[in-house]
Amino acid sequence: MKEQYDFKKIESKWQQKWAAEDLYHADDETKPNYYCLEMFPYPSGNLHMGHVRNYSIGDVIARFKTMHGYNVLHPMGWDSFGLPAENAAIKHGVPPAKWTRENIANMKRQFKALGLSFDWDREVTTCLPDYYRWTQWIFLQLYKNGLAYKKNASVNWCPSCATVLANEQVVDGKCERCDSVVEKKSLDQWFFKIKDYAQRLLDDLDKLEGWPNKVKTMQENWIGRSEGAMITFEAETGDTFEVFTTRPDTLYGVTYVVFAPEHPLVEKLISGKAEAPAVEAFKDKVSKLSEIERTSSEKEKEGVFTGAYATNPINGEQVPIYVGDYVIYEYGTGVVMGVPASDERDFVFAKRHDLPIRVVVTPKDHVLSVDEMETAYVDEGVMVNSGEFDGMNNVEAGRGIVAKLDEMHKGHQTINFRLRDWLISRQRFWGAPIPIIYCDDCGAVPVPEDQLPVMLPEDVKFKPNGESPLNYVKDFVETTCPICGKPARRETDTMDTFVCSSWYYLRYCDPHNTELPFAKDKVDFWMKNGVDQYIGGVEHAILHLLYARFFTKVFHDFGMCSTDEPFQNLLTQGMVLKDGSKMSKSKGNIVSPEDILNQYGADTARLFILFAAPPDRDLEWNDRAVEGCYRFINRVWRFVDYYLADEAGNADEAAEKELRRLTHVTIKRVTDDISKRFNFNTAISSIMEMVNGLYHFREVSHQKVTPAEKEAVETLILLMAPITPHLAEELWEKTGHSESVHQQKWPEVDASALTVDEVELAVQVNGKLKARIVVASDLEKDSIIDKAMQEQKVQDAISGKTVRKTIVVPGKLVNIVVG
User: Model-level pTM?
Assistant: First the structure.
């Protein structure tokens, strides 16, 4: 070759050739299928190192599977609706569609510069009408099947931005964008009935054997299944309200109840009460807190007395009603019962407000008194102060109390879930319009399917405060009722962007379908049991992954696909850190992928990002290590250069055999590391050891090209192909091959090459290393022990002692136990 490793020239050459040959188009139905998918990005404008890591991992897997004979589907697209585009429109006067298109073009260029093997013919963009038409269609199917509904809900409201904020957008009670104090506001909002699927979502976590346990645990906790009782109390106004509890055994110990401040019954409870002003002031104070702040375990729980009382159904006692900041209306029933002797939170609250504490569950061997209690007693025990249930085990008593309530029609056993229905309404412009029309005569009317998509208007003017301009676009809002033909108005809320990302993996299977979002046979072809391998950040462990699971189960129930789980296997990669912190502009520790590509090339960037840490661990950026990866690539380049310049010849038989052994040991290690563990770092380490061995062999073979060396060089190139695709492609061509290295068969291990004539064994005495011996690999155990005993340091260590035991670990060590 003689020329230098010119990564810019080489990478550009092969990227153009791959595109021209449509190398990564998945269309070979004669091969088994494999669907490899990384979570698609939001088109923010530029790739960051987290992107490089995520997509490099997926690319290695896709290329590896292709070389193993699979028909690999490896698509890419854009999660392109969302708030940043609106912010750009407000700040720079750039229409969201234009800003998004330009960002997509730039990030697509960067993706291609990384040499990623995406099938761009399947590209989807969620903000384009050909995609959000089907997002709207899916909404209509949920609506028609009773899984979409509208109700009044309490939301975080920024009065300056005139929009709903997610909990994550509320920082210290203020809007993260404009710093205005956030209020709680009741608005009519659209929901999806994900709670109807709570039990299935929970049960089917057991199917997901290829998911990390921590992710399954996070989903399990988020769904939050609780077995308990629903108990009916009656307020002094005559109104009844329900309380869910997992501890019905403590019902005799209730000394107060606490309502969420936003509970609709609170207004009636405080009407005409002297306590009303204090309650209203408290409600106003709580409305400025986020749910995260209200439910934080760090925060002291606050509350005020309403002046009203409720009747405990089990004993008829009157207990005071409080409102408390820690009770959320949308959680459970929005009311909790206070049992301070048996719940630590209630104990602290009761102490603070000087409320009664009544012991109802006590240890078997000691009856607790309130005076001696410093904390609540929460363990199993015996019932006291509980009427007919005194003396019973509390668990058994709990069942008896529920049975009694059931007879009284005051309660029943039930299951509760922490999971709430999915609020999908957003008072934003840049999202998929909700396809509903409001008619004064006909009510809420779904847009007919043949009128989809409901198009976002192009020419809109954004208000500086961020309020959605859709409310003021007359041509959008004003329409006619599909049923009666009278004047009507469109819904101006748009859908949560999670709706768009909850089904995109299905659209990839059939991206050009104009009759349906996807055809069942196409989805079943690629996703018989779900996506084979899904890759993305653990920050999506709950919302995105849970919503995608919900959608897939709904589609399964609608007969749209056979699988009821979207992702068979899940890999959650760690973050890329610099100086111990996540890269961010505010910290000034950003490393630009563009800079790395220009200085070192895509293959170096990929090699480092895969070598620096196991994929599920956080990765610390290291400039020197990047330089080291660049040097290694050049070292491989130089070796193949030498190899091509050398003449054919023969080498020492032992050296030939050892090189073949190294080659096939490396094949086995790399194959196992990638296929079984995704340990790309150790796979690369084995490749580096192989390169060291090749340089050593060249010295002992006196620069003669032997059959073993030819096999080793070609194997090296094949093993590096998924990791450094441009380098491998160039070297494959230089070594006389005309077809793409990425279409070659992955090398197989020759088991006979792995055998060795001699092995080195460590010799220990009582576990301490004393010597090393070299023995024939097939030497019998007794002979190995005899040879070990002949070592002088071993004889010194066992002199005057009795040999109690000898242990031989084949191929590794001998341990002589003396006493």
Answer: 0.89
Q: What length does the chain have?
A: 819
Tell me if 270 sits within 8 A of 306, measured CB to CB: yes
Residue 433 region by backbone torsions, left for phi larger than 0, else alpha for psi between -120 and 50, else beta: beta
706: phi > 0 → left, psi -120 to 50 → alpha, else beta; which? beta
Tell me whether residue 180 is exposed, middle or buried, using C-beta atoms within 10 angstroms of its C-beta: 0 to 12, 13 to 18, 19 or more.
middle
The amino acid that residue 685 corresponds to is S
Nearest to 52 by CA among 498, 601, 543: 601
Output the pLDDT for position 168.
54
Which 3 state secondary structure label does DSSP give 502? coil
Do 87 and 73 meet the contact criterion of CB atoms below 8 Å apart?
no
Terminus-to-terminus CA distance in the chain, angstroms?
Answer: 65
Residues 6+ apart with CB under 8 A from 623: none
| pLDDT band of 778, cuts 50, 70, 90 | confident
Number of H helices, E strands in the chain: 26, 36
Does residue 303 come out as left (phi exceeding 0), alpha (psi in the -120 to 50 range) or beta?
A: beta
Query: Could you tell me what percent of the chain has a pLDDT over 90?
Result: 82
Strands 335-338 and 256-259: antiparallel
579 with 589: CB under 8 angstroms? yes
Nearest to 47 by CA among 502, 596, 616: 596
Phi/psi for 809 (5° steps) reads -100, 110
Q: Which residue's entry shows tokens 């109690």? A: 804
Least reliable range by pLDDT among 305-319, 440-454, 768-782? 768-782
Give the separation between CA 202 and CA 261, rounded to whole angstroms: 31
**Banded pLDDT at 171 (limits 50, 70, 90):** confident
> So what's the pLDDT on residue 183?
80
The alpha-carbon radius of gyration of the chain (Å, integer) is 34
pLDDT digits (tens, 9 = 90+) for 536-575: 998 888 899 999 999 999 999 999 999 999 999 999 999 9
pLDDT at 586 over 80: no
Q: Are 548 and 566 in contact (CB under 8 A)?
A: yes
User: Rounded to an integer, what is the distance from CA 76 to the centroid of its chain?
Assistant: 18
Q: Which residue reads 């030497």 in tokens?
A: 779
- Residue for token pair 């209630």: 346
Helix (H, G, I), strand (E, B) or coil at 236: coil
Per-residue pLDDT at 167: 63
Half-sphere exposure of residue 287, counting CA atoms within 13 Å on the CB side?
19
Q: How far apart are CA 493 and CA 483, in angstroms?
A: 22
Q: Could you say which DSSP state residue 674 is in?
A: I
Taking Cα atoms as reference points, which of 582, 567, 572, 583 lies closest to residue 537? 572
Low-confidence winner among 118-132, 372-386, 399-413, 693-707 (lowest mean pLDDT): 693-707
Neighbour count for residue 238 (Cβ, 10 Å)? 7
pLDDT for 132 equals: 98
163 confidence band (pLDDT: 50, 70, 90): confident
pLDDT reported for residue 28: 80
Compute the distance between CA of residue 541 and CA of residue 501 in angstroms, rounded to an integer: 14
Return all residues near 375 (Cβ < 8 A) that are at least 6 apart. 344, 347
CA distances from 595 to 56, 104, 604, 755, 772 (A): 17, 19, 12, 46, 50
Say yes or no to pLDDT of 324 above 80.
Answer: yes
Confidence of residue 520 (pLDDT cuts 50, 70, 90): very high
DSSP sequence for 16-43: HHHHHHTTT----TTSPEEEEEEPPPP-
Give me 814's structure tokens.
């001998």
Kindly give the pairing relationship between strand 240-245 and strand 318-324.
unpaired
The CA distance from 573 to 691, in Å, is: 28
pLDDT at 734: 96
CA–CA distance, 546 with 478 (Å, rounded to integer): 36
